[in-house]
Design a protein that fits this description.
- It is a single chain.
- By secondary structure, the protein is of the alpha+beta class.
- It folds into 3 domains: 239 residues, Orthogonal Bundle (Neutral Protease, domain 2); 60 residues, no CATH class; 78 residues.
- It has a 5-stranded mixed beta sheet, covered by helices on one side. Strands 9-8-11-12 form a 4-stranded antiparallel beta sheet, with no helix packed on it.
- Strand 1 and strand 2 form a beta hairpin.
- The structure holds zinc ion.
- The site of zinc ion has 4 residues, from helix 4.
- Zinc ion binds next to helix 4.
- One of its GO terms (molecular function) is peptide binding.
- One of its GO terms (cellular component) is extracellular space.
């Protein structure tokens, strides 16, 4: 039809707007129920997005609306839309754009698949930060990108088990490599001056908040406080202090040290075990003490000169009359005098002292050194001589008198064979090797050539299937040809007959 048509759109409580139009769009939708209210989750994409977009886009939108609502407040808008366009992830209220598409042959790499799901979650998540919890992106980039990336991580982990979240740094390289560098900026740097924004605005805040949740506050306290922040500041203008203050007063914890270290500072986590000392009571029991001293002495290696002098002829061997009592006497041999002294001492002990003598537990002093500067909780896994283990969780407050080094006492029922700190890899410790006591050998590899790029296994599989199909056809053709030839031969032979 000819003529003009006017569309009028109205949206409440939005701080920006955008729209998309195309004759080519495919469209699907799925409702998400939020406490009885239906939010319509939708996707628009051209056929070039197939088969990825019909499979994942709307589900990713619906999943985001679901999980973000759980961690913050119910999504207040009526619709949430994901559009495929050549824009590398861009957010607006209720609508966002994503670039990832499959290859022309319909195959796609693992990175493309999870890249698409992740970017949809991230951009839909921006509805909460900063569209509704309305922080100022031009001053503090982490307040929207960081908080959104953190909830994106939580949302991804509820998509499938061990979802490959690129927003959560791997142990090697990436953010942990950056954190070790000398010249860094704090997360709190103004957005105009901020460098390495991928780390400082996205992955470092995500890592920090995950540590705050898992290792400092615990999930219950953190989730309550985080929700408080989102709900207090929805449709308002929070500044960093509002976030820090809400997390503290809602959790009831003083977190100044945490904000100082992770948001205002550039230190990293690198805690090492320097030494272990074992303390035991001197029982004065000659059987115990003298025997153990004797064993220790006899276990000591002979010194070099002693070994070399061993074969030298000795005067006392040439003149045996020179030998007397002291040539045989061992001062660590138990004597009657020792026994009597011990009996006498026992009689003079108070009950308290006697109880101490019977102490069966082991006392260890662990010397910890803070190489990275960041004060963090310390998790210690002790492995005992019988291979059983025990975990000790020490709060960050252990560093309050000296952030450089601290010693902690561990009291155990069994004898410790070895120690490991951060056994669950929860504190982003950049050097794992100094977490072991005793140390492990540091493993390195010579590289013979450049590593190959990660490819598209789905296409490899498709190509392999096509090749085996072609091979199969060739084989059939060859077989038929052979058959035809032998038939021909037969008829010719028959003719001869
Ligand atoms: Zn973003």
């Amino acid at each position: 039809a000819k003529g003009k048509k006017t569309w009028i759109y109205k949206a409440d409580n939005v701080r920006d707007f955008a729209f998309a139009s195309s004759r080519k769009f495919l469209w699907d939708a799925m409702g998400v129920d939020l406490n009885g209210r239906k939010v319509m989750c939708m996707s628009y994409w051209p056929k070039e997005g197939e088969p990825l977009w019909s499979r994942y886009s709307t589900h990713a939108v619906a999943h985001s609306v679901d999980v973000y609502s759980k961690f913050t407040f119910d999504y207040p808008y009526p619709v949430a839309i994901s559009v495929n366009a050549p824009i590398g992830g861009m957010e607006y209220p209720m609508i966002c754009w994503q670039r990832p598409r499959p290859e022309k042959d319909g195959t796609y790499s693992k990175r493309t698949k999870y890249g698409l799901i992740s970017v949809i979650i991230h951009e839909v998540g921006h509805n909460w930060f900063p569209m509704i919890v309305n922080s100022d992106e031009r001053q503090w980039m982490w307040m929207d990108e960081g908080l959104d990336s953190f909830v994106q991580f939580l949302t991804e982990q509820e998509w499938e088990e061990d979802y490959p979240s690129r927003i959560m740094p791997e142990r090697e390289g990436g953010l942990l490599g950056y954190l070790k560098q000398e010249n860094k900026m704090p997360i709190m740097t103004g957005a105009d001056s901020l460098q390495s924004t991928g780390y400082n605005a996205y992955t470092k805040p995500t890592l920090a908040l995950n540590i705050l949740r898992e290792s400092v506050l615990g999930r219950e306290q953190f989730d309550y406080a985080f929700k408080q922040y989102a709900q207090r500041w929805m449709f308002k203008r929070p500044t960093p202090a509002d976030f820090f203050r809400t997390m503290e007063d809602a959790s009831g914890q003083d977190l100044d040290w945490f904000w100082r270290g992770w948001f205002y500072g550039t230190d990293h986590t690198d805690i090492s075990i320097e030494n272990i000392h074992r303390y035991s009571v001197d029982t004065r029991d000659p059987y115990k003490e003298k025997t153990s001293k004797k064993n220790k002495r006899d276990d000591e290696p002979k010194r070099l000169f002693q070994n070399r002098n061993k074969s030298l002829p000795k005067r006392v061997d040439s003149f045996p009359e020179l030998k007397d009592f002291y040539n045989e006497f061992d001062e660590l041999e138990i004597t009657d005098k020792d026994r009597e002294a011990y009996e006498k001492m026992l009689k003079g002990l108070s009950d308290k002292e006697k109880a101490l003598l019977e102490e069966k537990r082991h006392f260890y002093k662990i010397d910890l050194k803070n190489n990275g500067g960041l004060v963090m909780p310390v998790v210690i896994k002790a492995t005992f001589e019988d291979d059983t283990t025990q975990e000790f969780r020490l709060p960050a407050q252990i560093w309050r008198r000296s952030p450089e080094a601290v010693s902690k006492m561990l009291v155990t029922e069994k004898k410790i064979a070895k120690l490991e700190i951060d056994p669950n890899r929860e504190t982003a410790d950049v050097d794992i090797e100094n977490n072991f006591y005793p140390r492990r050998i540091r493993e390195h590899q010579f590289r013979l050539s450049k590593p190959s790029k990660s490819g598209n296994p789905l296409r490899d599989k498709k190509k392999a299937a096509e090749k085996s199909k072609r091979d199969e056809e060739k084989r059939k053709q060859a077989e038929e040809k052979k058959k035809a030839e032998s038939e021909k031969k037969k008829t010719e032979e028959k003719k001869k007959d």
